[in-house]
Amino acid sequence: MLANKTVVLGVTGGIATYKAADLASKLTQAGASVRVVMTSSATEFVAPLTFSSLTGNPVATEMFGPAAELQITHIALASAADVVAIVPATANTIAKLASGIADDMLSCVVLATKAPVVVAPAMHGNMYQNPITQENLARLKARGFTIIEPEYGRLASGAVGPGRLAEIHKIMGTIQQVLGRDGDLAGRRIVVTAGGTREPIDPVRFIGNRSSGKMGYALAEAARDRGASVSLITAPTSLPEPVGVEMIRVETTSQMKDAVAKACAQADALIMAAAPADYQPKSAAEHKIKKEAASLSLELIRTPDILSEVKGNFLKVGFSAETEDVTENARKKLQSKNLDLMVANDVTAADSGFGTDTNKVTLIDREGNLEDLPLMSKREVADRVLERVVGMLKGKGHQG
């Protein structure tokens, strides 16, 4: 999503300035061309050399001087930007932007750009909660700026309260979401499921599987970055919550089935990347089962088959995790569940399947056509799956 995009990163003066270096590094690693503009106060906390070393681009710090000789003017930066992100944004800079003051390189870039602007405030809690700061943020929101609210926690002063810079992964997610607003899934509603469900044996034990949820979360983020409105129905995972995605948390397969049915009422596509448990105990013990007997017998019954039972005029994409006869088993599931697309993978293969950051899959459509993809990151797999979804939505005229 960030490949070939130009991010103008505005850095203002505060103790959180050092975190902007991490953001610049991560944006660059993701393929973005990062052009950093620092206020004079910011250079008191972190040297411009840090940012130029991380991004490979010169840093603009003043209206006149060496930067001008390199033709890195406020107009050139404003025109080149696909998005302007101000991280961190001090109360002073926020006030200047709200008032239209343009007295340094950064404020001039913001005033001159037509690109979307993302602002991540960071300051002492009293300054953030001051009515003037809140009024200025409201004015920026009304003008279309995206504000990433600061977090609650320990501040540089030692006090505890609101004002901590948002986590870098949240800022990254917001930038990607803003860049994808007009993507090829804009106006579409996509429902994604993720993780392995848990069927209780007693209050402390459950039947589950090895699914980490990584594939489903990658799909949710990829759909968001294409402009979709995304609902992520997730079983318990240890993954950070994706930015800009509606989170619906469930535990059991029955709960996931109910959540899917409700979320799909207005959906254009359902992508079932979760691994629902196939069986559940016929009855769960009310209290913890004591370790007394030499053995324990459980009577298991089938759980609902969500993809087979959910109804509606939307595309259905399934995932088939197999250990043998991968393609044949996936074909059978595609037909029996009446799917539009099946994503099949051998979970016993190296670097593929549960818990890994990569996956090797085969895409099978209704006509039986196979597309065998090489080993790639789960985010890359997600983008390939969504490319097929976009094509099918256009071809079949599906509407939520």
Question: Can you tag this structure with a few keywords?
Answer:
14 helices, about 35% helix, alpha/beta, Rossmann fold, about 400 residues, 2 domains, 21 strands, 8-stranded mixed beta sheet, 5-stranded parallel beta sheet
Roughly how many Å is the radius of gyration?
25 Å
Question: What does the overall shape look like?
Answer: globular
Overall domain count? 2
Number of strands: 21
Q: Distance between termini?
A: 25 Å
Q: Provide the spatial order of strands within the biggest beta sheet.
A: 12-11-8-13-16-17-19-20
- Name the poorly predicted regions: none
Can you walk me through this structure?
There is one protein chain. Strand 1 (6-11), helix 1 and strand 2 (33-38) form a beta-alpha-beta unit. The protein is built from 14 helices and 21 strands. The mean pLDDT is 93. The strands form 6 sheets. It has an 8-stranded mixed beta sheet with strand order 12-11-8-13-16-17-19-20, sandwiched between helices. It has a 5-stranded parallel beta sheet with strand order 2-1-3-4-5, with helices on both faces. It is of the alpha/beta class. It folds into 2 domains: 6-179, Flavin prenyltransferase-like (Rossmann fold), CATH 3.40.50.1950; 189-396, Rossmann fold, CATH 3.40.50. The two termini are 25 Å apart.
